[in-house]
Write a structure and sequence with these properties.
This protein has eleven helices and 13 strands. With 286 residues, the protein is of the alpha/beta class.
């Protein structure tokens, strides 16, 4: 069984199509703790961003060891092996918690294979890696071979992000207060990516929203690997901007057959705020 966590930002519909299970992380708002289910049963992405725009704050927490043990056991009890795709260890302790849980479970389930992979990916970059792995599984690739394929290819998943409001990066410690003030006044938008260690890195600055969206597609032209014809875009309640990026991609890259647009969910969105747009594709390198 392929399992991922909700930071992959894939919808329940896509999860069902890929036959994968999504384990929810947690976020807290107004003193209430919510689980970030793929089907958005506890709070939709739209509701989340409406609350953020009204001034509410959200803080997140990773999946703990006991949660992993409970969730994995549901599948192990059915005689299924598990391949788990974890949120980047450069951004969360989720992967480490999964490894501790697996060590505990191996004694109870000695005949089952349980593998956790540090994807070094975030949002639908994690989802894109999962998407291609699910295709490999459907074509008959066995679990251990599939795990090797994922390890060999995960650093080819390219992530490019931009945000509309610098104050959310300031709150998360990504930029200084002075940078946020000056950048906001000058309409400076950051262009960020996830590096080979799975960290979110500020690469450059672009003046104006549309220029920042164009710049992500320019970055894609530098490394895009045409053999992989599916691209993903995640967005924080700014669908028009995501569709604009999708239209640029379809015009510039004739080999792209499918652009999948999804939401940046509450866990990742707690750190980026509304207006985030992220582009994911398979490239020759990050």
């Amino acid at each position: 069984m392929i399992i991922t966590d909700s930071t992959s930002d894939i919808s329940q519909k896509l999860a069902d199509e890929l036959n994968v299970s999504v384990l929810p992380l947690y976020f807290e708002m107004d003193g209430l703790v919510y689980r970030n289910f793929a089907d958005e049963r506890e709070m939709t992405a739209s509701e989340f961003y409406d609350n953020i725009r009204k001034g509410k704050t959200s803080k997140t927490s990773q999946i703990n060891v006991s949660d992993f043990c409970e969730y994995f056991s549901e599948y192990l009890d059915k005689g299924l092996d598990i391949l788990y795709f974890a949120f980047s260890s450069g951004l969360s302790g989720t992967y480490n918690a999964s490894c501790i849980a697996i060590d505990e479970l191996k004694g109870k389930y000695p005949d089952r294979k349980i593998i956790s992979i540090d994807t070094l990916c975030a949002s639908m970059g994690e989802g894109l890696l999962l998407y291609y792995a699910a295709q490999k599984k459907k074509s008959g690739m066995e679990m251990e071979e599939l795990a090797r394929w994922v390890e060999d290819n995960k650093l080819n998943v390219c992530h490019w992000f931009t945000v509309d409001d610098l104050n959310y990066l300031k709150r998360g410690g990504r930029i200084s207060a002075a940078t946020a003030i000056v950048g906001t006044a000058l309409q400076i938008k950051p262009l960020m990516h996830v590096d080979n260690e799975g960290h979110l890195i500020n690469v450059s600055k672009v003046r104006g929203r549309k220029a920042s969206l164009n710049a992500m597609v320019d970055k894609m032209s530098e490394t895009y690997y045409e053999e992989y014809d599916t691209v993903m875009i995640s967005q924080g309640d700014c669908l028009d901007d995501a569709e604009y990026v999708a239209s640029l991609i379809k015009k510039r890259f004739k080999s792209v057959k499918d652009v999948i647009i999804g939401n940046v969910g509450p866990v990742v969105g707690s750190h980026t705020g509304p207006g985030v747009v992220a582009l994911f594709f398979i490239g020759k390198n990050r």
